[in-house]
Amino acid sequence: MAVLLETTVGDLVIDLYTEERPRACLNFLKLCKVKYYNYCLIYNVQRDFVIQTGDPMGTGRGGESIFRQLYGDQARFFEAEKVPRIKHKKKGTVSMVNDGSDQHGSQFLITTGENLDYLDGVHTVFGEVTEGMDVLKTINETFVDKDFIPYQDIRINHTVILDDPFEDPPGLAIPDRSPEPTKEQLDSGRIGADEEIDDLKGRSADEIEEVQAEKEAKTRAILLEMVGDLPDAEVKPPENVLFVCKLNPVTTDEDLEIIFSRFGPIKSCEVIRDWKTGESLCYAFIEFEKEEDCEKAYFKMDNVLIDDRRIHVDFSQSVAKIKWKGKGGRYTKDDFKEYEKERDKPSKLALKEKIKSKQNAKYDLVLDEDVEESQTSQSHLAKKQKKKKHHHSEDEEDDKRTKKSKDPDRKHEGERCREKMKSEKKDRHRSRSRSQERDYTYSKHRDRYKEDLQIRDWDKKADRSRSPKKSKDKERSKYR
């Protein structure tokens, strides 16, 4: 109940569901026995989906069942077996291909993906691959064209029946040995299965080095993309930027821009400098508006003398100026393009300074609507200030008119004010003299009071200095 398929890339062992699909298994086993699948092409390889074969013509439109050899042309196909239902859940599931009318011939497919539900009920599952999954992986990863046909032929060389539970039907012609392939079978118009593919054959040493350098560059780009230093492995440096090296440290941006501007308008010209010292690192990048101008400068300015130095000019290979979302390798080309579009759009945010100026001045983040409101409010304030100035100017004119009429009255008022000021000065002088007299008398009384206090303190000290025993003896002597 198993069959070995010997292919040009390795062997596959298929176990058959003889109990669930007896008719499909009988057809497949007897076709293998009569060597029908020998030298059949694998003509349809869809990666992580299916591998299709079983047509001796290699087109996908041919093939016939074993029952045609037994019963004639009317039995070229047989009806599909739908019960019990078996799903295409795992890799290596083997199914008979439906011809479009729920009938099968000799073509079969092997799945290289999991959970292919849309194949259920269409193609009849009758077995699975139990050995040779690495061979299945190799076939799955082969290079194919737009029609999913491999560039290099992959064929079934031979079929070996490991176990056959079915008896051979009468009239079945079994060959003694495997038949030889015809020229039509082997001539597929593609690279032969036995041919060795050597890309470097017939090339010179320089061409081989160039090919190897390209391969190394691709691998490095893929590594940089995986690390996150590049937005995409296929990103290319801009073609309108020149790299200029071997410059004199004296040469400035303005000098280079003046020299290279004769080839066309320049977007930017930058001499790279040390971020600490600011000294020139003797190389620069010049960005032109047009690629044609950049090419002219490349052909004419190489090895030119600038500031006593022979410069070298080449196309820039740097992508450092390309701005992208960040590291991590989570962004695709589409994300990068969307990011560039969003970057070109004007932002909806603006900075608004507070009206009152303080020592710790701060800025608030506001929307355009707030900015418009502030502008309108400022315009209203300006209008009000203009109106106030106009009113003030009218008031000043009225005051000037009234001043002329009130000049004589103001003279009399000025004389009265002077007299009042004189009288107030006299009163102040009198009050000062009185206060001085009071202070003088108060100071005298205070000095006298201090002297009395000092005399009293001296008397008390003299009384304390006398001993208490002597005073008592004197008192007693009086009474004796």
| Shape verdict | elongated
The Cα radius of gyration reads 55 Å
Low-pLDDT parts are 350-368
Considering DSSP H and I runs of 4 or more, what fraction of the residues is helical?
Answer: 40-55%
Largest sheet: 9 strands, antiparallel
Distance between the amino and carboxyl termini:
161 Å
Kindly report the spatial arrangement of strands forming the biggest sheet.
3-11-1-2-10-7-9-5-4
Structural class: alpha+beta
The total of helices stands at: 10
Strand content: 15-25%
Global mean pLDDT = 80
What kind of assembly state do the chains in view correspond to?
single chain
Total beta-strand segments? 19
Order of helices and strands: EEHEEEHEEEEEHEHHEHEEHEEEHEEHH
What would you note in describing this structure?
The strands form five sheets. A nine-stranded antiparallel sheet has the order 3-11-1-2-10-7-9-5-4. The chain is elongated. Helix content is 40%, strand content 19%. About 4% of the residues have low confidence. A hairpin with a 6-residue loop joins strand 13 and strand 14. It has ten helices and 19 strands. With 480 residues, it is of the alpha+beta class.
Name the descriptors.
alpha+beta; 4-stranded antiparallel β-sheet; 40% helix; single chain; 19% strand
Topology:
Layout: E1 2-7, E2 11-16, H1 22-33, E3 40-41, E4 44-46, E5 50-53, H2 67-71, E6 78-79, E7 93-96, E8 103-104, E9 108-111, E10 124-131, H3 133-140, E11 155-163, H4 183-186, H5 205-227, E12 241-245, H6 253-260, E13 266-273, E14 280-288, H7 291-300, E15 305-306, E16 309-310, E17 312-315, H8 333-344, E18 349-353, E19 363-367, H9 368-465, H10 468-479
Antiparallel strand pairs: 1-2, 1-11, 2-10, 3-11, 4-5, 5-9, 6-8, 7-9, 7-10, 12-14, 12-17, 13-14, 15-16, 18-19
